Amino acid sequence: MESAVPPSTAGGHDAEASLLADSRARRTSLERRIIRRVDWRLLPILGVLYALALIDRTNISIARVVGLDEDLGLSIGSRFSIVVGIYFVPYTLFQLPSNLLLRKVGPRRLLSFCVVAWGAAQLAMGFVPNWQLLTFLRALLGTLEAGFFPSLVYMISTWYTRHEVQTRLAIFYVVAIVLGGFSAFFAYVLSLLSGILGLAGWAWIFIVEGALTIAFGILAWFFLPGFPDRNGFLSVEETLIVLDRVQADRGDSLPDVLTWKKFVSAFDWRVGAYATMFLCGTISTYGVGFFVTLILRGLGWSVSASLLLSAPPFVFAGISTVFFSRLSDRYRQRAPFIAFQCLAAIAGWTLTGFAPSGLWRYAGKRPQLSLSACIILLISYRPGLFLSNAGSSGCVIGILAYSSNNIVSHSKRAIVSSVVISAGGVGGLVASNIFTQASAPRYLPGIIITIISQVVLLAVLGTTTVYFRHQNARAVRESAQLEGHRGFLYTL
């Protein structure tokens, strides 16, 4: 039987298909190389800088354990809660204005200035004579750090497609929380400088860590990248490839002009839902970050053991967060993974608060409180603070990706990211006031409220999932536009 297509024509089609496939393979390989280059330029520097931000805002609990409490009388009344909580007032109020300045001023100018300035505030804490001045400096710290995290999230979301974002957020966040976890050990070493130059050990924690922040802020001036349309490390061709990928994915590769109408329209019920979920998630993360050392002290561990044992839960959280973020990006699903990690956080806090002994609240066997015994403990973990830390850290990153995936345009992205993360400041304020001195050493009221907040998170997540599923079905059925773009579907 003769072929319906002449041999010469068939051969031409085969050659054309082969050339097309080869061209696509080269394009894919080129894209991967460019994205890897973007990864290495963005994620390490952003992760280190955010680690410094986390360390500088949470090291007060470590300083308290090594003597700040006694020297400034922070255990009197609600002083410690005031000192911790005051940070979050300006931190919450100034996030949106700061994020809106980012595009105009530029990431390098704005963010490097903020890092150097808050490093100076942190260093000054080493010389405070009373708790009132410490409170003022904590408020200043919150003002200077206000726009930092939402700016980083905003920047990362402009470089990648929707289903690459969570893994990148997780990598930069994990760098931060792992370094932040080991900061307790570093702070313990610094506290051993007590007496040198007549300064207490807690003072050296603030001074050295503040000086390191200033140094990295200066380096940030030279290494911080900009937005993809204004970057200085990719060629014109490479920049176009990055922009084309984002444009094909969600149609907002280039910035749009922010108008009053756009500003007002950005605030709908979904933004409130994202903010509520993020608030609930950060109550848990700040509960661990601020009080893990104090909780361990309450379980009977010595000062040195409490500081040394603070790091491993953060390492576990880092591994868990990257693992689930990779799965979430691979399967292009957000809600199921957020829900699973939220349940893990609930289980972890339940064990921490209500297990019959410190054995289960931290994990493993409880040996004598020597450093060698602590090292043995490091390889014999079971659940407790590990689950609560890993679950809540994973939720925070998942919610940021979930909100970022379901909005379009640079202006709305800047507004929504700052509003959502501002809610995290409220979460920190709540956490600093529910884990009170009066409830030490078990902090049961704080643990119960944290568990309730995770239940609320699950309820709101269920509501948005049902809504997005219904909207996607309607868009497919009626060829309707979502977020002003035909073919756009919400990420579930």
Automatic annotation (TrEMBL):
The keyword Membrane applies. One of its GO terms (molecular function) is transmembrane transporter activity. The keyword Transport applies. Keywords: Membrane, Transmembrane, Transmembrane helix, Transport. It is a multi-pass membrane protein. It is found in: Membrane. One of its GO terms (cellular component) is membrane. It comes from the Eukaryota. The chain crosses the membrane at residues 42-60, 110-129, 135-157, 169-190, 202-224, 271-295, 301-325, 337-355, 375-402, 414-435, 447-468. Residues 42-471 form the Major facilitator superfamily (MFS) profile domain. This is Major facilitator superfamily domain-containing protein.
